[in-house]
Amino acid sequence: MNNSGTLCPAVKAADMIGDRWVLLLMREMFMGATRYKDFQKALPRISPSVLSNRLKQMEMNGMIIKKTGAGDNTSEYRLTRCGRELAPLIDQMSKWGLRWARRRIADEDMDAGSFMWDFHRTVKTAELPDGETVISVNLTDVAEHSKWWIVCNADTVDLCTDNPGKEIDLYMSGPLPAFAEVWMGDVGPQEAISDECLTVTGSSHLTGTANAWFPQSRYAKVRPKRILDEDGAEVS
What we know:
- The protein is an alpha+beta fold.
- Helices cover 38% and strands 17% of the residues.
- The protein is built from eleven helices and seven strands.
- It has helices at residues 9-17, 20-30, 36-42, 48-60, 81-84, 87-100, 112-120, 176-183, 189-194, 204-208, 210-213; strands spanning 64-68, 75-79, 132-139, 147-153, 156-160, 170-174, 199-202.
- A five-stranded mixed beta sheet has the order 5-4-3-6-7. It has a two-stranded antiparallel sheet with strand order 1-2.
- A hairpin with a 2-residue loop joins strand 4 and strand 5.
- The protein is globular.
């Protein structure tokens, strides 16, 4: 008799979700991604074969459907009701992870491409001046893809790996972990600038209002919990 099966719905749900790539792909879809190239930009570490495999797996499990985009032959992926119902679960999982697994996130877990994708789409554009604002970002500790440009115009924010040839309003420079600390809410933008963790030059208006417009994770206010051992000492 085979006892390996289970009727536990939590296990069945875990089987459908599969792995971290499915969770990340679902997160991107909740953020508006619909096309293969969108997923590649947001998740530069995922290989084409794994990406295709996971999208097929998600389609087979009824989480998404594949449709031909209007006006061209490009395929788009759209959430089903099944997929949409995962949104609050992934949201709670993200908060839970930040509370209890934050100390496990190390510098080596950071990827410049993935970070900059999240970074650029969380610029608080309503706090920027009218018209176009161009920000140059230099990641001083990254060997490849160290220079990025963020072009903001109203609600549209574009991320460029090549110089767009536009007038730069603000230059920001520093190591990737320093940018990540500010983005995740561990350090305030002005504090990081004052402590010279980040170097920011250019428009005096933008440097003076950094606390208002600086990109920040939607979970920046979720603070990690202290984990204590049996003697009451904090576990490192």
